[in-house]
Amino acid sequence: MKPRRLGAWLVIVFGVLYFFVPLLGTFEFSLRLLRGVYSVAAYRIVLADPRFAATVTYSTVLALATIVMGVALVVPTAYWIQLRLPRMRPVVEFITLLPLVIPAIVLVFGYLRIYNSSSALPLTGSARTTDLLLMFSYVTLALPYMYRAVDNGLRAIDVRTLTEAAQSLGAGWSTILLRVILPNVRVAVLSGAFLTFAIVIGEFTMASLLDRPAFGPYLQLIGANRAYEPAALSIISFAITWACMGLIQIFTRGVPGQVAGAH
Amino acid sequence: MAEVAPATGPSSAAPPWVSEVSWAWVGVVPFFVFALMFLILPTGLLVVGGFQDKGGHFTLRNLLDLFQPTILNSYLISIKVSAASAIGGALVGFALAYAAITGGLPRWVRPTLMTFSGVASNFAGVPLAFAFLATLGRTGLVTALLVHVFGFNIYSIGFNLLSFSGLTLTYMYFQIPLMVLIMAPAIDGLRREWREASASLGASTWEYWRYIALPVLWPPLLGATLLLFANAFGAVATAYALTGSSLNIVTIVLYAQIRGDVLHNQNLGYALALGMILITGLSNAAYIWLRGRGERWLR
Question: Within a domain: residue A53?
Answer without folding.
Answer: yes
